[in-house]
Amino acid sequence: MSKKKAEEIKESSQHVLEQTVQYEKRIYDLEQLLDIAKSFCQNLDFSNLLESIVYICMAQMHVLGAEIFVRDLITNENFVLETSKDFLTEKKAMLPVSTPIASILLSQKRPLTFDELKQQCGNCEHIKLLESLNPTLIVPLIQKNHLNGMLVLQERIAIEDDASYSEYEINQIMSIASLASVAINNAALLEMSSTDMMTHLKLKYYFFNLLTEAIDAAFLNNQHIAVIMFDIDFFKKFNDTYGHECGDFVLKSVADLIRKNLRDSDVASRYGGEEFTALLIDAGKEEAMVVAERIRSTINEHDFVYNDQHLHVTISGGVSVFDAQTNLVSSPNEFVNQADQGLYMSKNNGRNRVTYFDSKAKTALKSANAKK
């Protein structure tokens, strides 16, 4: 065999090898996309889904961080930075839906580097917020020609001193973004259908679904879980004295204070009217009473100001704890009813207090009812 022929065979073999490697990578990436799609479809919890999207994009695109702006579920007026917040103010950063940034991303329908976006945006006042996130790529999240979010990829891990994105990577992140956009839309619909639009707390039926699952898990893992029920004292006087808008203000403010005094793993709901419930995961009597008392005292000391009127608002509460040995409740209804009976005792004993429901409380309640 001639030397020339041998070199041709070698070059051909090298070409076949390179093509094989490329196809194997594409097959692997397609398999990854299928796994990502399954992951997104199985996760309907809004916060968990966004966290999952962030970590997947960080791994796939080799970036040190990522953030997601999502169109506000309630007002639909802003893109809210859901994956990060200013811990000094506890407020999440926002971009108005009308920002030129959104128009540019929707019209381009492709990821843009920060320099490209800045060049097209000109002196847009909102570009500084994006710049503070140290972005390398901004990816539109588009659902049915509707921009429902923006994915911001941050500092990139350089590969062979090249931190740019290849065309193949751009297509890959757009595929992930398309899957993420559909998943976010589905999770948002579930979030809205299970959320009270006034207080932004969970609805009663959703709370009961979570409580059912929590009771089963607590039984299997021999854990304690707690339910707290609150009721605003003399709520009717706010409506009668200042009008129903004042009553709505009190409801929203109390709900916000309850939410701020719970952990991320806990769930608060608007049970109905001026009643609220909270589910505390892995919490016994001592922990639950501390939380309930903290919420009660926070509301008692809070200055509620409505139309220059300073209102004094108090709440009463009842606490019940699931314990497989001492309080093996048979249903979510029974569990909540116990907390409700504790609440009733708080009301009966002067309001603005929290009562723990146990056998002694049950006996006292029966005695009080018998005297009536």
Walk me through what this model shows:
With 372 residues, the chain is α+β, with helices and mostly antiparallel strands. It has two domains: 14-190, GAF domain (Beta-Lactamase); 202-371, Reverse transcriptase/Diguanylate cyclase domain (Alpha-Beta Plaits, 2-Layer Sandwich), CATH 3.30.70.270. The protein is 52% helix and 17% strand. The chain contains twelve helices and 13 strands. The strands form three sheets. It has a six-stranded mixed β-sheet with strand order 6-8-9-7-12-13, sandwiched between helices. Strands 3-2-1-5-4 form a five-stranded antiparallel β-sheet, with helices on both faces. The protein has a two-stranded antiparallel ribbon with strand order 10-11. Strand 8 and strand 9 form a beta hairpin. The longest helix has 40 residues, at 3-42. The chain starts with a helix and ends with a helix.
* Rounded mean pLDDT score: 86
Number of strands: 13
With helices defined by DSSP (H or I, 4 residues minimum), what is the helix count?
12
DSSP strand (E) fraction?
Answer: 15-25%
CATH architecture annotation name of the largest domain: 2-Layer Sandwich
Count of discrete domains: 2
GO molecular function: diguanylate cyclase activity
GO cellular component, one term: plasma membrane
Pfam families: GGDEF
Catalytic activity: 2 GTP = 3',3'-c-di-GMP + 2 diphosphate
What is shown here, in short?
Its EC number is 2.7.7.65. This protein has 372 residues and is α+β, with helices and mostly antiparallel strands.
